[in-house]
Amino acid sequence: MARKPSIENRIRELRFHAGEMTQAELGRRVGVTRQTIIAMEQNRYSPSLEAAFKIAHVFGKPLEEVFQYVPPDG
Amino acid sequence: MSFHEKSNLAMTAIFVLAYGAYFLAVLPPALAGEASITNVTPLLLGAVIFLVIAGVIAHILIAAAAPKDADAADERDRLIETRAEARAGHVLGGFALLAIALALVGQPVFWIAHAVLGGLVAAEIAKGVFRAVDYRRGV
User: What are the pLDDT digits (tens) for A38-59?
Assistant: First the structure.
């Protein structure tokens, strides 16, 4: 069972709006593997600050429009 | 599954097979009173050779199945590796204490050496399990 994440994201949605960019393409532009993009989209991995900024830069969005902090108590 | 996740599962399974067979072959006669380092040396070498050859074959097959992903590691792989190493260190430490205790009570070299070997093997297997759990559960 996956752990409850404290950071959620809109990567899947933003990829769709970016011409249905593939996970592999996003991974290549950010410098991570396709499997890591999959893990992020499934909220099984919270990226480093550097990777998070790179992802936001790829989509041309501010960081907080891509990633949202969810406090542990909901 | 990434290259490193597949590699981890393969190497953990190979470790269990190689050293599981070794300890199954070595421990029963040793417990019956035939504990001798020289007797088990060929078995130990056999386990190491099996580990190396099976590991190389497994990695060739994994890389051939997905050549683009071969040996690609990123920050998630490195984080999972670091977490697994830190936790497996406790397992190794426990066996090191056992080896010291065996030495202090004057046990034969055979048992001290096998406590150390058992620690290295158990830590490596634990590391593989920790990695597998982190890859599936998330970090």
Answer: 999 999 999 999 999 999 999 9
What is d(CA A24, CA B42) in angstroms, rounded to the nearest whole number?
A: 47
Q: Which amino acid is at A68?
A: Q
DSSP A2: P
B6, B76, B78, B136, best to mutate vs chain A, most A CBs in 10 Å: B76
Interface pTM, i.e. ipTM = 0.83
Please give the Cα distance from A62 to B96 (Å, whole number): 50
Running DSSP on this structure, what letter comes out for residue A4? P
Does A33 contact B5 at a Cβ distance shorter than 8 Å? no
Report DSSP state, residue A43.
T
Does residue A15 contact residue A23 with C-beta atoms inside 8 Å?
A: yes
pTM of the model: 0.83
Residue from the list A1, A43, A45 with its beta carbon closest to the beta carbon of B76: A45
Which 8-state DSSP code applies to residue B67?
G
Burial state string for B115-139 with b = 16 or more CB within 10 A and e = fewer than 16:
bbbbbebbbbbbbbbbbbebbeebe
- The torsion defined by the Cα of B67, B69, B72 and B74, in degrees rounded to 10, comes to 180
Question: Given A33, A42, A44, which is nearest B74 (Cβ)?
Answer: A33
